[in-house]
Write a structure and sequence with these properties.
One of its GO terms (molecular function) is beta-alanine:pyruvate transaminase activity. This protein has 14 helices and 15 strands. By secondary structure, it is of the alpha/beta class. The relative contact order is 0.16. It binds pyridoxal-5'-phosphate.
Length: about 425
């Protein structure tokens, strides 16, 4: 047994049956025995352009061959970082965006939370420190992200940072009540996944995102869109909030920005939020990780964007959105299933019947394993199994995903 300690894994059971993935090709991945699996989850919600894309691999290799990396602290820079920052800012739904790079989603949440508080400190409202988040939310596993976790099991490592308050996941009036009860002058930012992902694939109720953004605007609270899952095509646009007509103050991205070809994340801050740090002599945002603007990671980002645009993957996501939901609804009458969720982006879930789940809390795990035995990868979540296939998925792949999931449900019924 290797010394490799897996994230989010009960190592005692991993010990007996690790699955070693050795290569990937479009929507397929292969293990070390040569078994082929349909990737029904785009790995961990990130392989939006599919596996094994030569164009991205070549762009990364070319950059590594020229310069693997050099720090971007202070006034050092590199061309891939500058290019990708401009490409992202040009596609982001906020005004005059400035892009701060990190190594992943959790880093980026920390960055957004610190920036929100420091922004208010810089403009003379240092009492605005409270960070709001939603029930069921997932914002990574770093310090602030753990504090902002709406999934109770992810908060076990407390104590948490002060001034973090949870709001209902689905009710903008509840958000406003929380702000008013706290005193709006104390609230810095509201963190919001356009569709809650790891918390169970929960599309927002009609009008919720728009109303929540309006509540934030009215009370001077920054709206932080966590587009780590929802961005880069998953909802058919770049930042997952465009379809709601919302212009966030800060947008957080990771995962799909490189489709997993390199670790990369970041935030886009609107011109207003960046201004105190860009326009005030001597004022800096004292924050940043060693690999911020890593040239090979940024080269992967630019190549991913180019490939998405060449292959029309945003439009493809719009086509897949109803097709995935239709397939899931087609198996939602299974006795183990309560209902199908989805229809906002290429994201879906089958929620288990609460009574069956009460008798067998490991149902999601068992269905996931049964589907894997049959060559299809889906995601077990608290009370559901989830689906987020690559955007290159075809109708035939969706048929296979649904067929095998139905068979896996039968296997464990
Ligand atoms: N935010 C959201 C919405 C996520 O789904 C995730 C990871 O799944 C993160 C933040 C954290 O990203 P990372 O795992 O890259 O730290």
């Amino acid at each position: 047994m290797s010394a490799f300690w897996h994230p989010f894994a009960a190592m005692h059971s991993v010990r007996d049956n690790p699955v070693t993935i050795t290569r990937g090709e479009d929507v397929w991945v292969y293990d070390d025995a040569g078994t082929r699996y349909l990737d029904g989850t785009a790995s961990l919600w990130y392989a939006n352009v599919g596996h094994g894309r030569r164009e991205i691999v070549d762009a990364v290799a070319e950059q590594l061959g020229r310069l693997e990396a050099y720090s971007t602290f202070t006034d050092f820079t590199n061309e891939p970082a500058e290019r990708l920052a401009d490409e992202i800012a040009a596609r982001a739904p906020l005004d005059g965006g400035k892009v701060f790079f990190t190594s992943g989603g959790g880093d980026s949440i920390e960055t957004a939370a610190k920036l929100a508080r420091e922004y208010f400190g810089a403009i003379g409202e240092p009492q605005r420190t409270v960070l709001l988040h939603r029930e069921h939310s997932y914002h990574g596993t770093h310090g602030l992200g753990t504090s902002l976790a709406g999934i109770p099991g992810n908060r076990l490592a407390g104590p948490f940072v002060p001034d973090v308050v949870q709001t209902p996941w689905d009710d903008a009036a509840g958000l406003e009540k929380a702000i008013v009860d706290l005193g709006a002058e104390r609230v810095a930012a509201f963190f919001c996944e356009p569709v809650i992902g790891a918390g169970g694939v929960l599309p927002p109720p009609e009008g919720y995102i728009e109303a929540a953004a309006e509540v934030c605007r009215r009370h001077g609270v920054l709206f932080v869109a966590d587009a780590v899952i929802c961005g880069f095509g998953r909802l058919g646009d770049w930042f997952g909030v465009e379809r709601f007509g919302v212009r966030p103050d800060i947008a957080v991205f990771a995962k799909g920005v490189t489709s997993g070809y390199q670790p990369l994340g970041g935030i886009v801050a609107s011109e207003r939020i960046a201004a105190p740090f860009w326009d005030t002599p001597g004022r800096m945002f004292r924050h940043g990780q060693t690999y911020a603007g890593h040239p090979a990671a940024c080269a992967a980002g630019s190549a991913t964007i180019a490939l998405m645009e060449r292959d029309g993957l945003l439009a493809r996501a719009d086509e897949l959105e109803p097709q995935l939901l239709e397939r899931l609804r087609g198996i939602a009458d299974h006795p183990l299933v309560d209902h199908a969720r989805g229809g906002t982006g290429v994201l879906g879930a089958l929620a288990f019947d609460p009574e069956r789940l009460a008798g067998a809390p490991d149902l999601p795990q068992r269905v996931f394993r049964a589907a894997r035995e049959r060559g299809v990868l889906i995601r077990p979540m608290g009370s559901a199994v989830g689906f987020s296939p690559p955007l290159t998925t075809t109708a035939e792949h969706l048929d296979l995903l649904a067929e095998v999931t139905a068979a896996a449900l039968d296997d464990v019924a």
